[in-house]
Specification:
Blueprint (H helix, E strand, L loop, with lengths): L17 H6 L22 E3 L1 H18 L4 H10 L4 H10 L1 H7 L12 H6 L3 E2 L6 E2 L4 E2 L7 E2 H13 L17 H7 L3 H18 L3 E3 L8 E3 L7 E3 L6 E3 L12 H21 L3 E3 L6 E3 L6 E3 L6 E3 L30 H45 L9 H25 L5 H25 L6 H22 L3
Antiparallel strand pairs: 1-7, 2-3, 4-5, 6-7, 8-9, 10-11, 12-13
């Protein structure tokens, strides 16, 4: 498919179509000042250790204590319950300190009528939980004034910690939160104290909008970013790639909520879809059975040599410079007037349409991994036969890597397509993804036939595919 300026069409009223959007040279002749400005996936972040993050937390606590007359343990609790927003806490504290502490479940709404001094000086008092009598010094209470013996507090804490509850731990008789120093002063077992601090640290990280645990297996790295965006993060230690905002696998250009709904739907209906979605298809010309053994959707029948599209079984040449109609679901325009059962069948039909394309891209990615390995083996053979150096043949590896990147972007646009509502941006998105899909299939075709593909032609195809992928992400990457 060509993306040259010769393809630009102008309508009668003088407005250019989408081709102008891609082919205008107005902004392409000058290099951007910031090399990252042209990369929609660029994202600034840091990989931190647990010690680094603890220092960050301590600095936040110290800054808050320097501004407000509160203890460090309460400052930490306030920061945790307010997403570590120091300025908001200070503002609210100055407006109404009592209301802030009550709303944060640090201070009781009604002052305790029990004289704490009398409790502490008592020689013998019964605990209202275990009913055993102890001296007043053996009792502890929060600002709510609910006094219990240390053993009952310790048992309560042990039970909560065993369930993974730490920062949300409450008083045994009300919903007041228990601060960290209160817990650590009562717990005697070092294993419990260590587990409490471990769970608390995890809660603090999860509540901080600029921190995210790396989801890599056995990786203790914590990612810090100045903004919480659905951007790509690559852990420098375990190399795991994920979305900073939701912590799931990187899913651009689909937003976090949409990919979550899509994956849930796939998990619920995957068996049905897998049953319906066949792995083999008949050639539309000679009807011979064909199995897909490569990532490319440009198929050529080994019997009659007919070129067709794997997805829609249409003549490959008919795709031409038009965008793929086979990637666009055509809904029944009168479905809103149909019965509930008819609407449900239409919804299932639409889902299966997109699920088949989702699975097809996934299968293509797996098959192209095999192609990548074959390319590496082929390069080794070329080098051993003195047909060029390893560096001379790196363009083939780069082409395979770019193909995988583009294919992944295409797969992740499927959920967006399933949840579109026919707005003006949706039409642009359909056009962009179809242009990219066409160029990726051209790239895949050439990569799989790298021996006979001219290097200049392949590198030009790589450039076209990457520019289309970048344009798609730049316009639709969730921020």
């Amino acid at each position: 498919m060509s993306t040259g300026n010769s393809d630009i069409d102008e309508s009668d009223d003088g407005e250019e179509g989408y081709d102008y959007y891609y082919n205008s040279n107005e902004d392409t002749e000058m290099e951007p000042n910031d090399p990252h400005a042209a990369d929609p996936e660029y994202f600034e972040f840091m990989c931190l250790s647990k010690e680094d993050v603890e220092r960050l937390f301590n600095e936040c606590v110290e800054n808050l204590c320097a501004s407000l007359p509160i203890k460090p343990s309460l400052a930490k609790l306030l920061l945790h319950t307010h997403s570590w927003n120091t300025s908001e806490i200070i503002t609210r504290y100055k407006e109404d300190a009592s209301k802030l502490l009550i709303d944060s479940r640090i201070k009781a709404s009604k002052p305790s009528e029990i004289d704490s001094q009398a409790i502490r000086s008592a020689k013998s008092l019964p605990c209202s939980i275990c009913l055993l009598s102890f001296s007043g010094e053996h009792f502890r209470a929060l600002t709510c004034g609910h006094w219990f013996c240390k053993e009952c507090w310790a048992t309560h804490f042990e039970t909560q910690i065993s369930q993974g509850i730490t920062t949300s731990m409450e008083c045994q008789d009300c919903n007041l939160l228990v601060p960290e120093d209160f817990v650590l002063n009562i717990l005697n077992k070092s294993s419990l104290r260590e587990k409490y601090q471990q769970f608390s640290f995890s809660d603090y990280v999860k509540s901080h909008p600029k921190l995210r645990f790396c989801p890599g297996t056995n990786c203790s790295t914590i990612i810090f970013a100045k903004e919480c965006q659905s951007k790509r993060v690559i852990c420098k230690f375990c190399k795991t790639i994920f979305c900073f905002k939701c912590g799931s696998d990187y899913h651009a250009p689909t937003d976090c909520e949409t990919i979550k709904k899509w994956l849930t739907k796939c998990a619920d209906d995957s068996e049905t879809a897998n049953y319906i979605s066949a792995h083999t298809k008949d050639c539309p010309k000679c009807s011979i059975c064909i199995e897909k053994n490569g990532g490319c959707n440009h198929m050529q029948c080994y019997s009659c040599k007919f070129d067709f599209c794997w997805m829609c079984l249409g003549d490959w040449n008919s795709h031409g410079s038009e965008y793929y109609e086979c990637s666009r679901y055509k809904e029944n325009p009168n479905i809103a007037n149909e019965s509930v059962h008819a609407q449900a069948r239409e919804a299932l039909k639409k889902y299966l349409f997109y699920f088949e394309r989702w699975e097809n891209h996934a299968r293509s990615l797996r098959l192209e991994e095999e192609t990548h390995q074959k390319i590496i083996d082929r390069i080794n053979e070329k080098v051993m036969a003195s047909e060029g150096t390893w560096i001379d043949w790196q363009y083939l590896r780069n082409a395979a890597a770019l193909l995988a990147k583009c294919r992944y972007t295409l797969q992740l646009r499927i959920p967006y397509a399933d949840y579109m509502y026919n707005g003006p941006l949706d039409q642009l998105f359909e056009y962009q993804q179809a242009q990219l899909e066409a160029e990726i299939e051209n790239l895949s075709w050439k990569v799989e036939r790298a021996e006979s593909t001219d290097r200049g032609d392949l590198e030009n195809q790589m450039d076209v595919a990457e520019k289309l992928r970048t344009t798609l992400l730049k316009d639709f990457l969730s921020v």
